[in-house]
Design brief:
Length: 112
């Protein structure tokens, strides 16, 4: 155990894996094209070779209709909240203490 820490050479990846050091670019290029090809194949299956049964089509139409109703309810809620905000902004706001005008308390203190 003593010699392991002091006298041995450090680990060299090139010396221990010479084939990887020589062909790593080719290896990663192959992996890239393999993943790209798998993606193309999946895209082809979903776009061109995908066929739905009548039951799947009916289920999709029903789900899309339910989502449309849900979005309409959300839209109506947003419209009502915007209308409430519009009404609240239409009312005049009374500023109790203006920073740029002296308050009545400081004005009376300065007069004394």
């Amino acid at each position: 155990m003593k010699g392991y820490l002091k006298n041995e050479r450090p680990f060299s990846f090139q010396e221990n894996f010479p084939i990887y050091s020589r062909y790593f670019r080719l290896f990663f290029t192959f992996l890239f094209f393999l993943a790209f090809g798998a993606g193309l194949y999946d895209w082809y299956l979903n776009v061109y070779a995908g066929e739905w049964t009548d039951a799947e089509k009916r289920q999709y139409v029903e789900t899309a209709f339910q989502e449309t109703l849900l979005r309409e309810n959300v839209f109506r809620g947003v419209v009502s909240s915007v209308s409430r905000l519009t009404e609240s902004h239409a009312t005049d706001v009374k500023i109790g203490n203006d920073l740029f005008l002296p308050s009545p308390v400081t004005a009376t203190l300065k007069k004394k």
